[in-house]
Design a protein that fits this description.
By secondary structure, this protein is of the alpha+beta class. 25% of the residues lie in helices and 30% in strands. The protein folds into 2 domains: 20-163, no CATH class; 176-250, Beta-lactamase Inhibitory Protein, Chain:B, domain 1.
Length: 259
């Protein structure tokens, strides 16, 4: 009998201790900390019948997500704001409903319009339809003790819960040299029209021409006397940037040295 007790003690010391399950208080903290929270997408979020899987380290199968997007389209794109509308804690995963889930969207009565003649208006609240999806955060050995803040960190590769604008989110995806130019308020070759407008605003004048089948567009900023900037687009990208100083009478000085 003594030998059996000793053997049992040794076996118990070798076997790993069972993982601690979430307490009721921890479950409540997760539900309160995540439900109805807003986040900004850092990638395309597809719609999917089955919850899109994310591993406990924040990694996910991008190919599977792309396949889901091809079948049902996107629920949101880079920089879009989304909301966690429901949180369900299961034994080995946490399921997050995004924007009401797959069945979300514009209600039938929001598509109905009333009016007289050619003028109509929707009877619903208006606005763009909200598309949703579902995400499953996987924990193969069981959901460990976690806080809502820790779960948000795991989801960081997909969504950012910090309050940043869509513009800030877009800028963070650009190459370092472009980010620096935007920070310095400079336009450089290779930028598109939206980025130029973000830096300098809308031009005071535009002109277009076609040479050998290639479309060129010139944008002009500034007024004489003073600094003027001429930006040439070839197709959709900036191909040339020229800064000059215009004097009285419309005369211009030599281009400024490179900054």
């Amino acid at each position: 009998m003594r030998a059996l007790l000793v053997a049992g003690f040794l076996l118990a010391s070798v076997l790993p201790a069972p993982a601690r399950k979430l307490t009721d208080d921890e479950r409540v903290e997760i539900l309160r900390g995540l439900t109805a929270e807003y986040a900004t997408l850092k990638t395309i979020l597809p719609r999917s019948k089955k919850p899109l899987e994310i591993n406990a380290d924040g990694s996910y199968d991008k190919k599977k997500w792309e396949e889901a997007g091809k079948e049902f389209g996107p629920a949101g794109r880079l920089g879009d704001a989304i909301q966690l509308t429901k949180v369900t804690i299961e034994d080995d995963k946490i399921v997050l409903e995004i924007n009401g889930g797959l069945k979300s969207g514009r209600k039938w009565y929001e598509r109905v319009e009333v009016g007289m003649g050619s003028r109509t208006s929707p009877i619903g609240g208006g606005g763009n339809p909200t598309l949703g999806s579902n995400i499953a955060l996987l924990f193969p050995k069981g959901v460990p003790p976690l806080s809502a803040a820790e779960i948000k960190k795991i989801l960081l590769p997909v969504m950012d819960f910090e309050k940043r604008s869509a513009t800030e989110q877009f800028v963070s995806t650009l190459p370092p040299e472009v980010q620096k130019a935007i920070k310095d308020g400079r336009v450089i070759e290779g930028m598109d029209r939206d980025t130029v407008i973000m830096i300098l605003g809308r031009p005071r004048n535009k002109s277009r021409e076609t040479k050998d089948g290639v479309d060129f567009e010139d944008w002009v900023y500034g007024n004489p006397p003073g600094k003027m900037t001429f930006i040439t687009f070839q197709g959709s990208k900036v191909s040339k940037v020229k800064d000059t100083y215009a004097g009285l009478g419309g005369s211009t000085a030599a281009p400024l040295p490179p900054r």
